[in-house]
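Example record

One chain of 148 residues, shown exactly as stored in the release files.
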Amino acid sequence: MMRSVIYMVFLLFPLGAFAQTTAGTIWRTLGGVQIEKEYDPMIGMEIIRPTFGPLITALEGKEVEVKGYIIPLEGKKKQGHFMFSAFPYNMCFFCGKAGPESAMQVFTKKGQEVVYTDEAVIVKGILRLRRNDVTGLIYALENAELIE
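Predicted structure tokens for this chain:
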């Protein structure tokens, strides 16, 4: 009986419903991306090519909340564009301890800036998947604001 109830739940909810995540669990969903590395002769270096699955694709263009750590681009001060990581600065993607799926670029709402902190914060914004931009990260959060 219990098994049939579980199957019914899967049949009744569209795939997009399972893509709903909380600020603390979205990194797990984003971590489901498949990454392939290849040499790009145009830029003369190895690049990554992401392939996003249906759970990640369902989040594209949606407002999401993400809990993580600010990786500043312009020193430890207020800024409207920064990197954001699932891990603290000493364990982030740029230090070689994590993969590209654990970081994103954040672009805040026009005129808003976020003060740097070493503590985890929650930001909310529109998730963009960057499939073909070899110069940036595979995820971006646009029109973002600090929640807590």
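Notes: Residues 2-12 form the longest helix (11 residues).
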